[in-house]
Amino acid sequence: MNLDFSPEDRAFFARVKDRLSGALPEDIAATIRTNQPPSKEEMLRWQEVLAAENWLAAGWPTEFGGPGLTPTQRYLFEQAYGALYAPPPVQFGITMVGPILYTYGSEEQKQRFLPPIRENRTWWCQGYSEPGAGSDLASLRTTAVLDGDSYVVNGQKTWTTWAQWADWMFCLVKTDLTVKPQAGISFLLIDMKSAGITVRPIRTIDGDTEINEVFLDNVRVPVENRIGGEGQGWTYAKVLLEHERFIMSGAARSRRDLTALRALDRGGFTARIEALDTELLALEYLELRLLSAMNAGGNPGPRTSALKIRGTEITQAISKLRLDMARDWGDEKPEVLQNAESNWLNLRKLTIWGGSNEIQRNVMAKVVLGI
């Protein structure tokens, strides 16, 4: 594993860090620094800044309008980004369905959907989980029946983040009930303004309503909105989830937060901070190991499960440390300790979404370790 960065890569990192920090509006930074969820307006405003620099689609190749960063440059970009108190880009369009579209979509689909995603003109949500089909996604029951040049979709999705704001949803549906579950799944792009769609908010334990139930009652979806062939959805879903899990380590943000908390330690939390520092260092080395494999032409594949497992657990541990330190400080809390309780409650979700950590351990055992 090569841990050295070239002078060119170091210069790239310095340039990105300087330009990102100079472009971040202070009011948005204050929202993140005080552990509050950003509003839709704040997220869109910041993504406008990123889109103007062509950094919103930082991971996209040049032929689809991205900057064409190397794997090392993409890693360094994420390091510079994660060190800022900036909202993460809304991943559903840029990081999830975008790569599926430019890899598997038709030319018409690429021309239609990629520019609005890249230019921050559409908001996407993910129609995967259902009641009774979360980590066991192949058990989904939403159906799509072909009727002329459209599918008629019926079913229910749940835990759908920001569906209340979404223009489009990428959705897994059953198009064939006669084959094994994975083989009968297709991948549809559904206009959220379609007749028959109802979005109902779910209030989470921290009081927020970022997640929703989505009901689909006789929703007509043109066949042209299907990615690839019928029955190919499971293949695309697995690739997409690998993209999601790779970005879920959050190591750069965890390093930012742990550094800030270390500076506020008055002696009572030193041992916990040092233990977390060791765990975080191991995660950072795992990222570098996977980066080295990518630079050699490899694909991280199911090994991204390890990033998701350790990254989310470390993020939760840091949020608990923040909460305990906030209680220790009392009423006169520094900014980074404010809203610690609601933040800790919200982050309970991390080890569940994107495939629960229990399921990810099974994936690692079976596919990576061969046991």
Automatic annotation (TrEMBL):
<dbReference type="InterPro" id="IPR009075">
    <property type="entry name" value="AcylCo_DH/oxidase_C"/>
</dbReference>
<keyword id="KW-0285">Flavoprotein</keyword>
<keyword id="KW-0274">FAD</keyword>
<dbReference type="InterPro" id="IPR013786">
    <property type="entry name" value="AcylCoA_DH/ox_N"/>
</dbReference>
<feature type="domain" description="Acyl-CoA oxidase/dehydrogenase middle">
    <location>
        <begin position="125"/>
        <end position="219"/>
    </location>
</feature>
<keyword id="KW-0560">Oxidoreductase</keyword>
<protein>
    <submittedName>
        <fullName>Alkylation response protein AidB-like acyl-CoA dehydrogenase</fullName>
    </submittedName>
</protein>
<dbReference type="Pfam" id="PF02770">
    <property type="entry name" value="Acyl-CoA_dh_M"/>
</dbReference>
<feature type="domain" description="Acyl-CoA dehydrogenase/oxidase C-terminal">
    <location>
        <begin position="231"/>
        <end position="368"/>
    </location>
</feature>
<dbReference type="InterPro" id="IPR009100">
    <property type="entry name" value="AcylCoA_DH/oxidase_NM_dom_sf"/>
</dbReference>
<dbReference type="InterPro" id="IPR006091">
    <property type="entry name" value="Acyl-CoA_Oxase/DH_mid-dom"/>
</dbReference>
<dbReference type="InterPro" id="IPR037069">
    <property type="entry name" value="AcylCoA_DH/ox_N_sf"/>
</dbReference>
<dbReference type="Pfam" id="PF00441">
    <property type="entry name" value="Acyl-CoA_dh_1"/>
</dbReference>
<dbReference type="InterPro" id="IPR046373">
    <property type="entry name" value="Acyl-CoA_Oxase/DH_mid-dom_sf"/>
</dbReference>
<dbReference type="GO" id="GO:0005886">
    <property type="term" value="C:plasma membrane"/>
</dbReference>
<dbReference type="GO" id="GO:0016627">
    <property type="term" value="F:oxidoreductase activity, acting on the CH-CH group of donors"/>
</dbReference>
<dbReference type="GO" id="GO:0050660">
    <property type="term" value="F:flavin adenine dinucleotide binding"/>
</dbReference>
<comment type="similarity">
    <text>Belongs to the acyl-CoA dehydrogenase family.</text>
</comment>
<dbReference type="InterPro" id="IPR052161">
    <property type="entry name" value="Mycobact_Acyl-CoA_DH"/>
</dbReference>
<dbReference type="InterPro" id="IPR036250">
    <property type="entry name" value="AcylCo_DH-like_C"/>
</dbReference>
<feature type="domain" description="Acyl-CoA dehydrogenase/oxidase N-terminal">
    <location>
        <begin position="7"/>
        <end position="117"/>
    </location>
</feature>
<dbReference type="Pfam" id="PF02771">
    <property type="entry name" value="Acyl-CoA_dh_N"/>
</dbReference>
